[in-house]
Amino acid sequence: MRVAAAFAARHRWRRAEIAFWVFAFVAWAVLSRQAPIGNEIAILALFALSLDLILGYAGIVSLGHAAFFGAGAYAAGLFAKHLSGDPLLGLAVAAGVATVLDFATSFLVLRGSDLTRLMVTLGVALVLGEIANKATTITGGADGLQGVVIAPLFGLFAFDLTGRTAFAYSLVVLLVLFVVARRIVNSPFGASLRAIRDNPLRAAAVGIPVRRRLVAIYTIAATYAGVAGALLAQTTQFVSLDALAFDRSADVLLMLVIGGPGWLYGGIAGALVFKIAQDVFSGLTPQYWHFWLGLVLVVLVLTGRERLHERIARLVRGRRGAVPVPPGGDAVRADRV
Amino acid sequence: MLTILFDGVAYGMLLFVLAVGLSVTLGLMNFVNLAHGAFAMAGGYITVVLMSRYGVPFVACLPVAFLAAGALGAVLERTLYRRLYDRPHLDHVLFSIGIVFMAVAAVDYTMGSQQQNVRLPPWLSGRFDVAGVGIGRYRAFLIAICGALVVALQLVVSRTRFGSRLRAAVDDRRVARGLGIPVDAIFAGTFAVGSGLAGLGGALGAEILGLDPTFPLKFMIYFLIVVTVGGTRGIVGPFVAALVLGLADVAGKYYVPASGVFVIYTLMIAILLVRPQGLFARPR
After folding, report:
1. Contact flag A291-B260 (C-beta cutoff 8 Å)
2. Which residues pair with B130 in a beta bridge?
3. Which of A238, A236, A256, A249 is nearest to A297 (CA)?
4. How many CB atoms lie within 10 A of CB A303?
């Protein structure tokens, strides 16, 4: 009974969380002129959330998460261009494509050590990027996929230039998928993932099917990434090679690390900070904003990102409520290459 | 056909010189240093600046590139890298990506984003024929220099006292430390030499690989392939991996130009599937 009670307690929504989501929708209502950037933040947050599922909860370091983002983006773009402009249908198709692709690659990724994983995830993303680059007749190559037209949502709300429909659409999708992710990580399934992250050997010893669990969460995460990519394709009505680039994988890793992996809000907070910082820095020095990004990363790692996050988490949550699990976790320890 | 073989070997040897430092870093300290290419870029730009602004001859630039990149590596290792050795891999990745971003932006800011050219001296440009096979003089020069380096490195690692300490430290850091081997000092030394070799490789490769601020990002994957495929124990593994990679890349680009870099990525994934620990490593 105590176990059931503990799981029930994890499921309860805290006041701060509810306040956060209310705030997000108020932002939509009030900041109508910043809608395009809000839309982008919501999409990046979903993408970072997807990485959090595998990095923060299962301890898989991926350098090629953009593969699934890009796959979703191209799937949604091509679907809208050639078959139907219905946004929700396109979203489902993109999610399906990303899921299938991921299930196929998960067997490559989930073997070997950290380093092999890094390489294989990176390699998969690069191969996809190269395919998209060369298959110009289908993807438009370096010019990007043009002529994507998305029909109004439910036949009522058009995706116009103000971006308000887009923002609301992305925000609602983010909320729905967030609720699902929250249920997943707080379920017994999520608990078994954390066990695997902290010590795969012991997890296997207590009877957790390690490989199957990892494949499952990896596939779920890729579906999320695919949906995020599809949202970008639909709301901008354009797909470029950028969707598959290494920068995108690195950026999302960065966002997640800024926000702290392993507590779901990390990706959202990170995306928010990242996008605003990008806006400010690129306003200062348009071309060289990556320098400041790199500096932030180096300083963040050197000062110890765990300590920083614990302090912030304590501020946010008060004394009640557990401190988020240490980001990174033991599963990404160094001794296993 | 033979020309391709020759170019591939030259390219592979160049990749080896660029990547060998990374292999030691990874094998010895288990540090995933994605910023290795930044040292190579430093070497390349030093050569370009010395040649175009101060008129230093190309061959004289090479040792300077080696020393400067090595010094840069030593300073960074002592001040920053060494704090991170027992951190998780994720921290290594983030830290070195940060370094790469900073290096790319800094070079872009100071040197501009255009492609830099190295003007080779006349005795190194052009081709000559040996038994009907066209051989680029510069390619031959590369093979000679890199070949000498490979032999020298192999001798140092296998024959000297320093080499045997290094091998002991790579095999088992803790036991080596227990035996009184100064692992930290050995590592600082090899990190500097590895960075220096990367700098030398950058200087030598500016002509073939091209040199612009995105160099570290563009070639990161090549270095990592050499290391992951070749394993991190000793010199031979990475050397063979670099040769295979060089040959596959040159041949792929020649015979199936449409495939681009596709060939090598697929090759890498295939090899890692069969041998996740690399071609030559014994599984631990």
Report:
1. no
2. B133
3. A256
4. 10
- pLDDT per residue as tens digits for the range B229-276: 887 667 788 888 888 888 888 887 777 776 666 777 777 777 777 776
CB contact under 8 Å between B32 and A120, yes or no, is no
- Quote the pLDDT of residue B260: 62
SS3 A161: coil
Q: What are phi and psi of A332, to 5 degrees?
A: -95, 20
pLDDT of residue B253: 77
* pLDDT surpasses 60 at B139: yes
How far apart are the C-alpha atoms of B121 and B44, rounded to whole Å?
Answer: 16
CB of A201 less than 8 A from some CB of B: no
B279 touches chain A (CB under 8 A): no
Alpha carbon distances (Å) from B43 to B8, B51, B72, B153: 23, 12, 10, 20
Listing DSSP states for A168-187 in one string gives: HHHHHHHHHHHHHHHHHHHS
Q: Tokens at residue B135, please? A: 């051989």
Facing residue for A127 by CB, picked from B84, B265, B277: B265
Helix, strand, or coil (residue A319): coil
pLDDT the model gives residue A322: 44
**Is residue A162 in a domain?**
yes
pTM of this structure: 0.81
pLDDT tens for B61-80 read 888 889 999 999 999 888 88
Q: What angle do CA B21, B23, B29 make, to 5 degrees?
A: 95
Domain interval for residue A81: 2-246
pLDDT value, residue A314: 65
Percent of chain B with pLDDT over 90: 3
Residue of B nearest to A125 (CA): B265
Q: What is the per-residue pLDDT for A332?
A: 41
Name the nearest CA neighbour of A151 among A40, A36, A234.
A234
**DSSP letter at A286?**
T
- Residue A127: list chain B partners with CB under 8 A: 262, 265-266, 269
Interface check for B159 against chain A (CB to CB < 8 A): the answer is no
Residues B35, B93: Cα–Cα separation, whole Å: 9
Contact A115 B228 (CB under 8 A): yes
> Which phi and psi angles does A92 have, rounded to 5°?
-65, -40
B166 vs B188: CA distance, rounded Å: 11
Look at A108 and B273 and tell me if their CB atoms are within 8 Å. Answer: yes
Domain count, chain A: 1
**Percent of chain B at pLDDT above 70?**
92
The answer to whether residue A13 sits within a structural domain is: yes
Look at residues A18, A39, A6, A316 and name the one whose alpha carbon lies nearest to residue A172: A39
The residues, any chain, with a CB within 8 Å of residue B228's CB and separated by 6 or more, are A115, A116, A119, B268, B272, B278
Q: What is the pLDDT of residue B71?
A: 92
Domain-embedded: residue A183: yes
Interchain proximity B105–A253, CB inside 8 Å: no
The answer to whether residue A30 is domain-embedded is yes
**What average pLDDT does the structure give for chain B?**
82
Q: Is A14 in CB contact (< 8 Å) with chain B?
A: no
Residue among A61, A291, A337 whose CB faces B30 most closely: A337
User: Which residue ranges of chain A lie beneath pLDDT 50?
Assistant: 319-337
